[in-house]
Specification:
By secondary structure, the chain is an alpha+beta fold. It contains 14 helices and 14 strands. Bound molecules: zinc ion (ZN) and manganese (II) ion.
Length: about 450
């Protein structure tokens, strides 16, 4: 039996850092510009207290994950390790403020708050402390997933919940995952710092088959921490698993104990936005779509929004089919709809197609172009006149004697092949319905 559990780090979308008022923007700022004595641990500096905005976002997540939230005083601990990205030589990490949650059948063991370290560039030995002190929550699950598929589903649901709450600092980064995996007869192995859901899936597949091979060969699977090498597609040993003692945890005397006000919990519970599960139920009810389509739509927040916008202009059935096609194209590219620039082009495309101004092959081609080329603009296609279609139909009939005689012998399916030829020749500028009718007429004459 396979057991998979996760520790997931989410950088929270707040204006300022956890213990100082520096901006959290670390990606789109010059290195070491959003820093101060606190987040670079200068001698004599003291943390400014806990950023309230962090607590609000953290509690929102805990509520959405159906956790019990602790209201007793909680402490920040110092977790010691030594690396150039960590100016204090310890990371501040809170006691769990939320426990015993559940999402998609997976139990959430606990959630706690942490500060992110800076970014150390191994190649040239430089460090950027813009990220140091950015607030994180770490969500720890029980090892309740028993296959890579279940693990993937859980992460997709979690990502959707976080997107609906709008708590992720950089949606293009999303979250960082540490995956624990073990199989019957072997120790648990942790794979550190995987950046995408797709990466988690590949790393788990690799690791599970490695464990199976090891056991088949009569080898022992050691408890260890491994690194996922995205480029080579393998996991490699990082270190034998450290124990809690290695971190020399101690209470941070600079941060007074904090507690979460029950009134804040009730305020946030009352303000909770619609979550993916609720939206799925609503879409089924309101638009009469089936459950699996509804899940497809809601697990990508922007896709669900696009569906509802399109349902108004082109009808729910068309909108669902458009968004399902789009989901396939997005999956192929491994992206969320939010990563596509100028999304209004997709609404335009849907209107062009469902009002009959472009044909199906053009619609698919345009959808791909919109995803791949930010400057592409969908336009109504110049449609060929009946005379132009007729001329091409004649040429196709002449060039495909075999299909024509099949048709004449009563193999009506042969016409599909001939229409396909016309569509290809006209690059989709012939309306297939017109093309079939004209083709039939010409076949009668041929
Ligand atoms: Zn600072
Ligand atoms: Mn952590």
């Amino acid at each position: 039996m396979v057991r998979i559990g996760f520790e997931i780090h989410v950088q929270l979308k707040t204006d300022s850092k956890l213990f100082c008022s520096c901006s959290t923007r670390f990606l789109d700022a010059e290195p070491n510009t959003n820093v101060c004595p606190v987040c670079t641990a200068q001698p004599g500096s003291k943390p400014e207290g806990i950023n309230e905005e962090v607590l609000r976002k953290a509690v929102q997540v805990a509520l959405a994950l159906n956790c019990k939230i602790k209201t007793e005083p909680l402490r920040f601990l110092r977790k010691h390790y030594f690396y150039p990205d960590l100016p204090n030589n310890y990371q501040r990490t809170s006691e769990p403020f939320a426990v015993e949650g559940e999402l998609n059948g997976v139990r959430i063991r606990e959630i706690h708050i942490e500060e992110d370290p800076g970014r150390y560039e191994l190649r040239d030995g430089t460090v950027d402390y813009n990220r140091a002190g950015v607030p994180l929550i770490e969500i720890v699950t029980e090892p309740d997933m028993h296959s890579v598929e279940e693990a993937r589903e859980f992460l997709k649901h979690l990502r959707a919940v976080l997107d609906y709450l709008d708590v992720i600092l950089y949606p293009q980064i999303g979250f960082r995952v540490d995956a624990n995996v073990s199989i019957e007869g072997g120790e648990r192995v942790e794979i550190k710092n995987i950046n995408t859901i797709h990466g988690v899936v590949k790393a788990l597949r690799y690791e599970i088959s490695r464990h199976k091979r090891m056991l088949q060969m009569g080898k022992e699977i050691k408890r260890e921490t491994r690194h996922w090498d995205e480029v080579r597609g393998v996991t490699v040993t990082l270190r034998e698993k450290e124990t809690a003692e290695d971190y020399r945890y101690m209470v941070d005397p600079d941060i007074p104990p904090y507690h979460i006000d029950p009134a804040l919990i009730e305020e946030l519970r009352a303000k909770m936005p619609e979550l993916p599960f609720q939206k799925k139920e609503r879409l089924m009810e309101q638009y009469g779509i089936d459950e699996s389509t509804a899940w497809t739509l809601v697990l990508d927040k922007e896709l669900g929004n696009l569906f509802e916008a399109l349902a108004k202009s082109v009808g729910a059935k068309n909108a669902a089919s458009f968004c399902t096609n789009l989901r396939g194209e997005l999956n192929y590219r491994g992206i969320y709809l939010s990563e596509v620039p100028r999304r209004e082009r997709l609404e335009k495309l849907a209107k062009l197609y469902f009002s009959g101004q472009i044909t199906k092959p053009v619609y698919i081609e345009y959808m791909r172009k919109i995803l791949d080329d930010p400057s592409f603009e969908p336009q109504a296609q110049e449609q060929l006149s009946d005379d132009e279609i007729r001329e091409i139909a004649r040429q196709i009939i002449e060039g495909n004697a075999a299909a024509v005689s099949d048709y004449k012998r009563g193999e009506k399916k042969a016409i599909n092949y001939l229409v396909g030829q016309i569509v290809a020749r006209t690059k989709g500028r012939a309306d297939p319905k017109r093309a079939i009718q004209i083709l039939r007429e010409e076949l009668e004459r041929a």
